[in-house]
Design a protein that fits this description.
Blueprint (H helix, E strand, L loop, with lengths): L1 E9 L3 H9 L4 H4 L3 E9 L3 E10 L2 E12 L4 E6 L6 E12 L4 E11 L3 H39 L1
Antiparallel strand pairs: 1-7, 2-3, 3-4, 4-5, 5-6, 6-7
Helix pairs in contact: 1-3
Length: about 160
């Protein structure tokens, strides 16, 4: 089992960041990778979604099962339809309050069949996706937090 972990500080309330991750309808702007998302079953806190993303210059689609725990600021996910050489892909988003905003961590655990070069290539792809997602989430959540503050000041 391989593990990658990435984190970022976001100048926005943890509740705003969590909601941006929860409501995957906004992922085209939030993730930096997603071009389409559709919930195919389940409810608000446990569901399966189909996601279309651009990775490595190619369009890819997958099914992801998610379990959300708003009280603890976590979203567990597992890719349901993994393809060779990938054997398993699971992970967790964690959104916590920091001193000046939210601290966000994304962890992936994955298994890949094949030689060490294939494992390294998978790790690099996941690392790249994580950085892109975190950077896009930061921009979007900070923009949303700014809109919310302006709206609150105007009322």
């Amino acid at each position: 089992m391989e593990t990658t972990t990435h984190g970022i500080a976001i100048d926005a309330p943890a509740s705003v960041v969590f909601e941006a991750l929860r409501d995957s309808a906004h992922w085209a702007s939030v993730s930096g990778l997603t071009i389409y998302k559709e919930q195919v079953d389940g409810g608000a806190n446990e569901h399966t979604i189909r996601i279309s993303v651009v990775i490595g210059g190619e369009l890819s689609s997958c099914l992801v099962a998610r379990t959300l725990d708003p009280n603890n600021g976590t979203i567990f996910f597992q890719q349901v339809d993994v393809e060779e050489p990938l054997q398993l892909l699971i992970g967790e988003w964690t959104v916590a309050d920091g001193e000046t905003g939210a601290i966000v961590t994304i962890q992936h655990d994955f298994e890949v069949s094949g030689d060490p070069d294939i494992v390294m290539s998978a790790r690099q792809a996941i690392d790249d996706c994580n950085r892109r997602e975190l950077d896009a989430l930061k921009l979007t959540a900070e923009w949303l937090a700014g809109l919310i503050r302006k709206q609150a000041e105007a009322t």
